[in-house]
Automatic annotation (TrEMBL):
<keyword id="KW-0812">Transmembrane</keyword>
<protein>
    <recommendedName>
        <fullName>DUF456 domain-containing protein</fullName>
    </recommendedName>
</protein>
<feature type="transmembrane region" description="Helical">
    <location>
        <begin position="133"/>
        <end position="159"/>
    </location>
</feature>
<keyword id="KW-0472">Membrane</keyword>
<dbReference type="InterPro" id="IPR007403">
    <property type="entry name" value="DUF456"/>
</dbReference>
<feature type="transmembrane region" description="Helical">
    <location>
        <begin position="88"/>
        <end position="113"/>
    </location>
</feature>
<feature type="transmembrane region" description="Helical">
    <location>
        <begin position="47"/>
        <end position="68"/>
    </location>
</feature>
<keyword id="KW-1133">Transmembrane helix</keyword>
<dbReference type="Pfam" id="PF04306">
    <property type="entry name" value="DUF456"/>
</dbReference>
Amino acid sequence: MEYILLILGICLLIGGIIGSILPALPGLPLSWLGLLCLFFVPGIETNYWLLGITLVLTIVLSILDYLIPAKGTKMFGGSNYGIWGTNIGLVVGIFLPIPFAFLICPFLGAFIGELIYNSQDKKRALNAAFGSFLGFLAGTFMKVFYGFILLGIFIWIVIDNYTIWI
């Protein structure tokens, strides 16, 4: 049973890192669930404080993931139309077979949203789309980085506990 939980935990952590790049999967919550799997493995001591702190960080970073692209759009002069365009572009980008569509579509969505808001000012629409794209990249980097931190914690706990058994 313990090996099944360890394999499940690793799969959830790797799926969480992939989900941090693809907007369809809840990356950080999956990664945290992978870390939580260690709690149920007999013989591995898991610190309640570590689980609690990582849970709070996961919740905060998941909320920030939705706020950062919107703030990037606003900072570069975008409107709510650009924010909605970014979110729609994220969803559309998942389903397109084009490589890296999940990077291109938020940019195009924000640009199209800003053009719908004000079709005369193409420069402002381009700036807002660029801000949205930067916000998306910043949020993605933050999630992937934190996902690797959780993976490192998982590996550290497993190695630390299994070296005692050997």
